[in-house]
Amino acid sequence: MSDSKQVWTEEIKSHSSIFSVNFREVWHYRDLLLMLVKKDYVTFYKQTILGPIWFFIQPILTTLIYVLIFGQIAKLSTDGAPQIAFYLSGVTIWNYFSETLTKTATVFRDNAAVLGKVYFPRLIMPLSIVVSGLMKFAIQFALFIAVIMYYTFVKNMLHPNIWLLATPFLVVLMASFSLGLGMIFSSLTTKYKDLVFLLTFGIQLFMFATPVVYSITSIPAERQWIVNLNPLTGIFECFRYGFLGTGNFNPDTLVMSTGIIAVILLLGVLIFNKVEKSFMDTV
Fold first, then answer.
1. What is the pTM of this model?
2. pLDDT, tens digit (0-9, with 9 covering 90-100), for 251-264
3. How far apart are the first and last CA of the chain?
């Protein structure tokens, strides 16, 4: 009687190279990703009074504060755009980037109990954070569109142009940048836990290095190249130029941002892939 060869439906083995990233396996676990997104949404707002309405309240209050501080007191230029539309454009996309980066940077620490007991592709965790953030961004983006339509068709103060069609690409760039940086910090914080505090402080400073509350045209021409080194600069300027029709957007900055973000995302995936094998020994 011959022995029949046993066929396994799943085979779990240690990868020998940091370049051995199994994206097909990640796609196979897409149902888990959707379940994690749903869990994140439900658990966060289940015991709140206003629930998803906070998605609208937060950007509105932040925008009003920016209008008061940077618009009325500091008198920063908005390139002729209405202050509410100008600051809301910055708040909308900055909120998505900063929150995604912050949550991704602590994914190993926050999910150590699950990651140490159950096997699944570890990339699912940071990817679920990115997708979950897109839901909140979509709601806040709808609020932003309503404001843009008001100032465009009612007040006739804005003149959007064809560059607004680049919005999906800009969102992908922001998601990739926050995912790449987040995975790098998440990998480092498994060993150096105080980097979490540095990241929290660094994000606040990084906002002022990004044209969130100001336009790059308000910076002296000889110093604009410094701000353009920030990968988010091209994204913010393109976003504003497309929807507000103001500013001095240079497509070259967006090309440079794309290249920098691609490199950071690649490094993030490789470093994350290396650390995930042994993070339970240090977390």
1. 0.86
2. 999 999 999 999 99
3. 51
